[in-house]
Write a structure and sequence with these properties.
heterodimer, A: mainly alpha, ABC transporter involved in vitamin B12 uptake, BtuC, 2 domains, two-stranded antiparallel ribbon, globular, B: alpha/beta, Rossmann fold, four-stranded antiparallel sheet, 10 helices, 21% strand, binds adenosine-5'-triphosphate, binds magnesium ion
Chain lengths: 607, 282
């Protein structure tokens, strides 16, 4: 690559692609105040449908585009009809979780159908480049620009001059008023999801052609980039989304020019965090003052938690405690060790997402911080493993809280976006900060678990150790919840405005929740590092964050016992039914969807 | 420092604009310790916005709020709560998933010893430590507060006490409003702001609420009341302030204000067109 002009052209082209995703997100946010986390999955579907069309059906380019747009729109309509419409009257967290679940299901279906290996997606265009000023431009660049501009024009005409477009605009200005005036909200939602999906699908196709490669990891990246662009432009603001996308494309492109390719995403997410903190309503915020959220206490489902008598809990602890002395297989112990580790993470997340209502999608970052701290301390400074794990927990508590603190002033869906981005930032920093983290090579040869000088190498001792730590953390958390902090956290979750009016500082209590939760997650990550003996920047990924969220919802938000039960169920049941590994994520996604739809309070109830 | 005879609450030129609309327009108000002043006015007059400015949930564009002569303009709601300002909300803002007991205990939050040290970082960590260790003094404090909550709830007869462990979302509308008042009382406020405490209540419930407010006043509590039910306003208030379109259009003893032609006009003028206007503005 050479000139600045090249980087500018590249930035604008990539920005154009982001715009196709972001405009869809903005349309959906406009009418239903929902951030559609499944948008990237539709983009993924678009790319693979495009591959089928180009490589197997040999369709000409215009037909490919139309085909992709139609199939993607169909997927969007199905999502709207079966995934979201049934949740119209449920709590605010429900559609958010549903789109997360849908996204996992779609990604896994694509992965199972096409295998996770990357594929080449030829662009069907002649490979020539024209000299423009000091840079070059190819036919594909022109195509992307053309598709971007004509989609924008079509959308403008639709919104401006058609009756349905008018209804969409009315609904996004004031949904209730629009309904009173006879606007059919379901039809509006359908239109919006159809359009958003068509644009997203075409975007996936074009990106696949641009890089001549598609793979299943594209989905999450696309969602993130689209959300960044949309939030930068102001959530729900369609022209803002276009400008935000171009800006994002340019920032990334110049960032790559100066610092190198591996920093591309870091710039995107830093831009997001900066905008969220400084201008949460976007760079071009309209005069709207109050955040467009319902006023009070409807974020989580009200429920009466299932009361489990204390003695039953102690009996359960005793049974699991003596389990290794019974003739059980190594395999069972191994499975349960995984469950206990996941249980610690779920305890942490159920406090943060359930008790104080900050639905974090980047929780795996806390695992990573704990794991790296513990691994590096024991390897480079020969700190005893037990102490190193505790240090990992403390580091995760401190650093995690500081990193997440920019999101404390955000509410609802914005918290999820911010935590997702912060989680990505952590993993990118780990990847790029080679002098400390050893970058992409990862850390190998991490010493095994040991306690007071005794190595815990037998499965039985590892089992006891992890089980004891988890029970200890659960007891501490139960104690916390029964103190004044428990009710303060829950009050903030139920109504942060009333909570502030009664003297509860949001920063203070959200920090305390993250400190406590960060410790549990960091300890879990630390133990995992010594168990695995090798970790890298991908060991603790978004899939684990989502898995933990599913566990937490399954058990009941804020429910300590529920978090452990959920972890055992989600780790154990696939083993019991011998479900192959590649189907598990799919199952988790489906479980999440079913829960949201039929039992939003989880098995044991929200506390 | 506090001047000797400064009124408990004093507003000067308080103003809040939303775009082109001036919701609160240069309001002056003095409320003496132990007094009860009512604010009335048609829908959209700016009464709730005024409450938000006094309690820190919103910031004024101009003007000052002072408490016993001390300027508290623009302080955060948390700080103002710690200064002894408690309020209820017009539409009701109880903590739905918390029990009645916990809702009211939140009212006492600012009085907890654990939250007192305002040192950054150390203060919150100490609070976490106290919550986990739970020494006997912490337990005793919590026990004492629970007893206090029961005493406050007993002011509402048998309405709330039998439901003390039920989550607030399961309560009737009127009971939720009572929980809000109980929560405000648990703060031991210097100044209590009630935003339409009888909205949506039937006549006998209204009478009950009126009795309670009269009792609180007799006990010496300083109260600022927003209320549409004029009967109640006339009975309770030392003084009545009438707002319309953000401005104070009349002030004085209840009977005097009631017969003021400007007030009659504001009510008639808006009483009919007010609802229609609100709908189209929404
Ligand atoms: N956050 C806000 N943004 C924009 N306008 C607002 C906001 N809050 C209030 N307003 C407007 O300010 C005006 C005053 O509203 P306010 O709620 O204070 O009236 P009120 O006197 O309490 O009315 P009511 O008797 O109906 O409760 C209204 O026109 C309202 O629409
Ligand atoms: Mg009001």
């Amino acid at each position: 690559m050479s000139s600045w002009l090249d980087y500018t052209i590249n930035g604008l082209i990539v920005g154009n692609v982001y715009a196709l995703v972001a405009v869809g997100l903005a349309l959906i946010f406009g009418v239903s105040r929902l951030i559609n986390f499944a948008q990237g999955s539709i983009y993924l579907v678009g790319a693979y449908i495009g591959w089928v069309a180009v490589v197997q059906l040999h369709t000409p380019l215009p037909l490919t585009i139309i085909f992709v747009a139609m199939v993607a729109a169909l997927v969007g309509l199905i999502i709207e009809r079966f995934g979201l419409r049934p949740l119209q009257n449920s709590v605010r967290i429900a559609p958010l979780l549903a789109t997360i679940g849908i996204s996992f299901v779609l990604d896994q279906l694509v992965m199972l159908t096409f295998s996770p290996n990357p594929r080449a997606l030829p662009s069907q265009l002649p490979d020539v480049r024209f000299q423009v000023g000091g840079g070059t431009i190819g036919p594909l660049d022109l195509l992307i620009a053309g598709v971007g501009i004509s989609s924008a024009l079509l959308l403008f005409v639709f919104l401006r001059y058609s009756k349905l477009g008018w209804a969409v605009r009315a609904a996004s200005q004031d949904r209730d008023a629009a309904m009173q005036m006879g606007v059919d909200v379901n039809r509006v939602n359908q239109a919006v999801f159809g359009i958003a999906a068509a644009l997203g699908g075409v975007s996936g196709l074009l990106v696949g052609m641009y890089y001549n490669q598609i793979d299943t990891a594209m989905s999450l990246q696309a969602t993130l980039k689209g959300v960044v662009a949309e939030v930068v432009g102001g959530a729900g603001n369609v022209p803002g989304a276009v400008v935000g996308s171009l800006l994002l494309g340019l920032v990334e492109s110049y960032g790559v020019a100066v610092f190198g390719t591996s920093y591309r995403n870091l710039f995107a997410f830093l831009l997001l965090v900066v905008v969220l903190v400084l201008r949460p309503n976007g760079l071009f915020a309209s005069a709207r003052q109050a955040p467009p959220e319902p006023l009070t206490g409807t974020f989580i489902a009200p429920s009466r938690p299932v009361r489990i008598p204390r003695w039953a809990l102690w009996v359960a602890v005793a049974v699991f405690g003596v389990l290794p002395m019974l003739p059980v297989s190594f395999y069972v112990l191994q499975t349960l060790i995984n469950a206990w580790l996941l249980g610690m993470l779920a305890l942490s997340l159920t406090l943060v997402a359930g008790t104080i209502g900050q639905v974090s999608l980047g929780h795996a970052a806390l695992l990573a911080i704990g794991a790296y701290t513990s691994a590096l301390l024991s390897l480079t400074l020969s700190v005893p493993v037990g102490l190193a794990i505790i240090a990992g927990g403390l580091m995760s508590a401190a650093l995690g809280t500081i990193l997440i603190s920019p999101s404390f002033r955000l509410r609802g869906h914005y918290v999820s976006i911010a935590t997702l981005a912060i989680g990505e930032i952590v993993s990118l920093v780990i990847l790029n900060w080679e002098s400390v983290t050893r970058g992409p090579i990862g850390i190998s040869g991490i010493p095994p678990l040991s306690l007071f000088g005794y190595e815990l190498t037998s499965p039985t001792s590892v089992y006891w150790f992890s089980f004891a730590v988890m029970v200890l953390l659960a007891l501490l958390q139960a104690r916390l919840l029964s103190s004044h902090l428990g009710r303060s956290f829950r009050a903030i979750r139920d109504d942060d405005i009333a909570a502030r009016a009664y003297g509860l500082s949001l920063n203070r209590y959200k920090s305390l929740a993250f400190i406590f939760g960060g410790f549990a997650a960091g300890v879990s990550g630390g133990i995992a590092a010594h168990l695995y003996s090798y970790i890298n920047h991908e060991t603790f990924n978004t899939q684990q964050s989502i898995l933990a969220l599913t566990v937490v919802i399954l058990g009941g938000l804020g429910n300590v016992v529920g978090a452990v039960v959920g972890a055992v169920a989600l780790v154990g049941l696939p083993e019991v039914f011998r479900i192959a590994a590649e189907y598990r994520i799919l199952i988790y996604g489906i479980v999440l969807l079913l829960l949201v739809r039929f039992r939003p309070q989880g098995l044991l109830g929200t506390i | 420092m506090a001047e000797a005879h400064a009124p408990l609450l004093s507003l000067r030129g308080l103003t809040r604009r939303f775009g082109g609309l001036t919701a609160v327009d240069g309001i002056d108000l003095d409320l003496a310790k132990g007094g009860l002043v009512s604010i009335i006015g048609p829908n959209g007059a700016g009464k709730t916005t005024l409450f938000n400015l006094v309690t820190g949930l919103d910031r004024p564009d101009a003007g000052t709020v002072s408490l016993e002569g001390k300027d508290v303009t623009g302080l955060s709601p948390e700080r103002l709560a710690a200064q002894g300002i408690a309020r209820t909300f017009q539409l009701g803002r109880v903590f739905g998933n918390l029990s009645v007991m916990d809702n009211v205990l939140i009212g006492a939050h600012t009085r907890l010893r654990a939250v007192k040290p305002a040192v950054p970082v150390i203060g919150p960590l100490l609070e976490l430590g106290l919550a986990l260790l739970r020494s006997s003094s912490v337990k005793a404090e919590e026990e004492g507060l629970r007893e206090e909550v029961k005493a406050i709830l007993s002011r509402f007869g048998e309405r709330l006490l039998p439901r003390i462990d039920q989550p607030a979302y399961s309560l009737s509308y009127a009971n939720r409003r009572r929980v809000e008042i109980a929560r405000a009382l648990a703060l031991k406020p210097r100044l209590l702001l009630l935003d339409e405490p009888t909205a949506g209540m039937n006549p006998s419930e209204t009478a009950e609420m009126q009795g309670l407010v009269a009792e609180l006043k007799a006990e010496g509590l300083t109260i600022l009341l927003i209320e549409h039910k004029l009967e109640m306003v006339m009975r309770l208030s030392d003084r009545v302030i009438v707002m319309d379109e953000g401005q104070k259009i009349a002030e004085g003893p209840g009977e005097e204000v009631r017969n003021d032609p400007k007030v009659v006009e504001a009510y008639l003028g808006h009483g009919l067109s007010g609802t229609a206007e609100q709908e189209s503005a929404a």
